């Protein structure tokens, strides 16, 4: 079990027994940084994607009395995703709130962009092997997105409710970084020998259903704050 996830579970107040029995969600080496770290590269990426139609209507759904945006720039065992779910649970239970009183926004950007992709993408393009990420048992390369319930069959029920698709089912808004997505497009283009436009369309087909792509993660962060969300550095 990685130190990041162990710290998260302890901070979350789970029992020692639950900590010991819960298999490691995702074993990773140092976080991989996608090659989009210069202004020149970001501008070039934006030139390629500026013709996209960007959906910003999600801001009208940030209506809860309590609002928070969780910034997730690294995979780090998925703790950024789990923390977003934990916050919603804690606020609802401690403050005795109705579900509609809490609005959760999750921004997946930078090196965490593989978490925006479905398990078919992880399996087809060898994400686990490429990023040196092991599955929840720590023995094989991850072949599925560990933040989706279909991949986390051994997770305790108290934790599984915090997974990405479960949170989305309860109204969480999940946004993806369009600039980081360029790395996904490049991977598809290289492996499938496709032209950039073809690769982009195919890459889109692997996005998690319901995830809304934005021009960039920073764009999404600022829009969420303008909609009234508190900013949370979730990783």
Structure description:
- This protein is an alpha/beta fold and 235 residues long.
- It has one domain: DsrEFH-like (Hypothetical Protein Ychn, Chain: A, 3-Layer(aba) Sandwich), CATH 3.40.1260.10.
- Helices cover 40% and strands 13% of the residues.
- The chain has a five-stranded parallel β-sheet, with helices on both faces. The chain has a two-stranded antiparallel sheet with strand order 1-4.
- β2, α4 and β3 form a beta-alpha-beta unit.
Features:
about 240 residues, alpha/beta, Hypothetical Protein Ychn, Chain: A, 11 helices, about 40% helix
Instruction: State the fourth-level CATH superfamily.
Output: DsrEFH-like
* Total discrete domains: 1
CATH topology description? Hypothetical Protein Ychn, Chain: A
Cα-atom Rg, whole angstroms?
A: 17 Å
- In helices, the fraction of residues equals 40-55%
Q: Sketch the major β-sheet.
A: 5 strands, parallel
Main sheet: strand order: 6-5-3-2-7
CATH-scheme architecture: 3-Layer(aba) Sandwich
Strand count: 7
Shape: globular
Secondary-structure element pattern, one letter each: HHEHEHEHHEHHEHHEHE
Strand coverage percent: 5-15%
What is the residue-averaged pLDDT? 85
State the distance separating the first and last CA atoms.
Answer: 17 Å
What is the count of helical runs? Answer: 11
Structural classification? alpha/beta
């Amino acid at each position: 079990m990685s130190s990041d996830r162990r710290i998260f579970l302890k901070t979350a107040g789970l029992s020692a027994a639950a900590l010991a029995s819960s298999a490691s969600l995702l074993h990773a080496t140092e976080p991989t940084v996608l090659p989009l770290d210069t202004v020149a590269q970001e501008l070039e990426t934006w030139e390629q994607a500026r013709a996209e139609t960007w959906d910003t209507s999600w801001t009208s759904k940030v209506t809860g009395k309590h609002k928070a945006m969780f910034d997730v720039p690294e995979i780090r065992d998925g703790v950024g995703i789990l923390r977003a779910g934990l916050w919603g649970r804690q606020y609802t239970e401690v403050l005795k709130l109705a579900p509609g009183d809490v609005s959760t926004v999750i921004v997946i950007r930078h090196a965490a962009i593989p978490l925006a992709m479905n398990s078919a993408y992880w399996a087809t393009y060898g994400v686990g092997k490429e990023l040196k990420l092991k599955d929840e048992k720590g023995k094989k390369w991850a072949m599925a997105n560990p933040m989706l319930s279909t991949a986390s069959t051994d997770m305790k029920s108290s934790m599984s409710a915090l997974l990405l698709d479960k949170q989305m089912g309860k109204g969480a808004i999940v946004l993806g970084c369009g600039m980081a997505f360029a790395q996904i497009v490049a991977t598809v283009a290289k492996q499938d020998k496709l032209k950039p436009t073809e690769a982009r369309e195919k890459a889109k087909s692997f996005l998690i259903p319901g995830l809304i792509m934005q021009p960039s993660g920073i764009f999404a962060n600022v829009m969420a704050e303008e909609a009234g969300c508190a900013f949370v550095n979730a990783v």
